[in-house]
């Protein structure tokens, strides 16, 4: 019984080391090593007037994925603009959270009707960000969150990382 447990523990530690190494590698490749220090305290999210969770921008930098869904719970858009931005973004309708396309077909929303976002891709949230720096001022670790937001806003060629 001791041998299988040793094999399992060794395999688990090896996979964990590889995973953490990939996280660090992505952070360094994006020139965002500070992103590893964010411990998701949510102080920055409470400061955002639009209800965007800036920790999602940090996660997008770590994962090297600008399409990572992040919470953006207070952005109001008309249906036409929201569909042009991303038809799969999640909106709040009553007590439900559902994709915009489904809400349009299910409730027959007019193009001029206003919807409230719930979750969207990091690059779209960055495009709507006011860059007021409230999140950066509220960050306990003083992380350069605006830098991550600006990098997500910048158009990237296919296959490129966020950093320039």
How would you describe this protein?
The protein is an alpha+beta fold and 164 residues long. The protein has a domain at 2-78 and 119-153: Fumarate Reductase Iron-sulfur Protein, Chain B, domain 2 (Orthogonal Bundle). 48% of the residues lie in helices and 13% in strands. It is built from 8 helices and 5 strands, in the order H-H-H-E-E-H-E-E-H-E-H-H-H. The protein has helices at residues 2-29, 43-47, 55-63, 79-85, 100-107, 122-128, 134-138, 145-153, and strands at residues 69-71, 76-78, 90-93, 96-99, 114-121. Strands 1, 2, 3, 4 and 5 form a 5-stranded antiparallel β-sheet that branches. A hairpin with a 2-residue loop joins strand 3 and strand 4. Helix 6 packs across helix 8 (145-153). The protein is globular, with a radius of gyration of 19 Å. The protein starts with a helix and ends in an 11-residue tail after the last helix.
Please specify the SSE layout and strand pairing.
Layout: H1 2-29, H2 43-47, H3 55-63, E1 69-71, E2 76-78, H4 79-85, E3 90-93, E4 96-99, H5 100-107, E5 114-121, H6 122-128, H7 134-138, H8 145-153
Antiparallel strand pairs: 1-5, 2-5, 3-4, 3-5
Helix pairs in contact: 6-8
